[in-house]
């Protein structure tokens, strides 16, 4: 069990870390068939002065590299060394998936559908259980980084529950290009944090098996703004200023391909489109068929399917239904 005692000494995974110190502790995940241990590095940095404990995670899905790159940059640039409090970084939660460039655990399960886990369940469930019991209790505030699945590219966004005033407060501070109202998925890490009374920001940006510099910058800048708000960002770092306030997406829906064929996207993710605007073309491989894809309504493009080939019925564009600008 993780905890902080009266002397501000953090005990996590059996190791005590006093104020002003740092440590890298390995969470023993499981063993390979060869009995070689697979361990998850937990990178902890503590200030002398007490303050919040911020937990930053990525790689719950092992193929979502943008999130891993965001947390890597936070560590590499020493942004994770706080002025007050404690920053805990876990760049790759699902090391198995990362090694295999796979979304899932070796047991075929999605770790982000296995929280809070069970002591004697499947491999993914057991790991979720250990994470929730041994690491999560000490955190005051959590940020978790994801990407779109497969070839679907997500615009940089924070997802929160509608009517979550506290979540909206911190989403405004993070100030990603978009803030999207999104229901919490059952047995997800986000749901478990919420049930334990911990504020969590879920970041989505880019797509799996891809590294995008612009997405990474949005993630790093957002973390710095949150740490600055808590008084944790050291003075040698400037608080990044956002160009515009985050755009609120209240509802959205997918547009699906009417035909199978080669998909040629003509519009950038994040762009505002008008109803009837030309967005893509679907063709056959033989030069006989060409179908123009037009926007079914006015809204923001918040996800684009970047697969070069689609089947009839495949989701190709995720379009907001009722966008509004945040005036704060």
From TrEMBL:
**Which Pfam family, any one, appears in the UniProt record?**
AstE_AspA_cat
Q: Which domain of life is it from?
A: Bacteria
- Cofactor(s) needed: Zn(2+)
Looking up Gene3D superfamilies in the UniProt record yields: Zn peptidases
Which CDD domains does this one have? Answer: M14_ASTE_ASPA-like (cd06251)
Alphabetized InterPro entries for the sequence: AstE_AspA_cat, N-alpha-Ac-DABA-like, N-alpha-Ac-DABA_deacetylase
Enumerate the spans annotated as Succinylglutamate desuccinylase/Aspartoacylase catalytic domain: 50-229
Keyword annotations of the record: Hydrolase, Metal-binding, Zinc
Q: What name does UniProt use for this protein?
A: Succinylglutamate desuccinylase/aspartoacylase family protein
Q: What is the lineage of its organism?
A: Bacteria, Pseudomonadati, Bacteroidota, Flavobacteriia, Flavobacteriales
């Amino acid at each position: 069990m993780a905890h902080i005692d009266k002397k501000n000494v953090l005990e996590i995974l059996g190791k005590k870390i006093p104020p002003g110190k740092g440590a890298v502790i390995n969470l023993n995940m499981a063993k390979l068939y060869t009995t070689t241990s697979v361990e998850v590095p937990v990178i902890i940095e503590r200030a002398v002065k007490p303050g919040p404990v911020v937990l930053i995670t990525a790689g719950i899905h092992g193929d979502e590299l943008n999130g891993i790159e965001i947390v890597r940059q936070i560590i590499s640039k020493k942004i994770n060394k706080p002025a007050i409090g404690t920053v805990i970084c876990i760049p790759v939660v699902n090391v198995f998936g990362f090694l295999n460039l796979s979304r899932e655990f070796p047991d075929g399960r999605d770790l982000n559908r296995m929280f809070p886990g069970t002591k004697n369940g499947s491999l993914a469930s057991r790991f979720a259980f250990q994470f929730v019991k041994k690491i999560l209790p000490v955190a005051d505030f959590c940020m978790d980084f994801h990407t779109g699945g497969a070839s679907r590219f997500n615009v940089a966004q924070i997802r929160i529950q509608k009517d979550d005033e506290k979540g909206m407060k911190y989403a405004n501070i993070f100030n990603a290009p978009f803030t999207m109202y999104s229901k919490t998925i059952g047995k997800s890490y986000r749901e478990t944090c919420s049930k334990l009374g911990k504020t969590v920001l879920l970041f989505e940006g880019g797509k799996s098996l891809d590294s995008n510099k612009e997405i990474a910058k949005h993630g790093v800048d957002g973390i710095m703004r949150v740490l600055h708000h808590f008084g944790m960002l050291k003075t040698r770092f400037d608080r990044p200023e956002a160009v515009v306030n985050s755009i609120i997406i209240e509802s959205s829906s997918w547009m699906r391909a009417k035909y199978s064929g080669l998909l040629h996207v003509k519009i950038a993710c994040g762009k505002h489109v008008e109803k009837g605007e030309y967005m893509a073309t679907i063709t056959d491989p033989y030069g006989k068929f060409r179908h123009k894809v037009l926007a079914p309504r006015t809204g923001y493009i918040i996800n684009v399917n970047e697969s070069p080939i689609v089947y009839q019925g495949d989701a190709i564009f995720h379009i907001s239904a009722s966008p509004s600008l945040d005036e704060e």
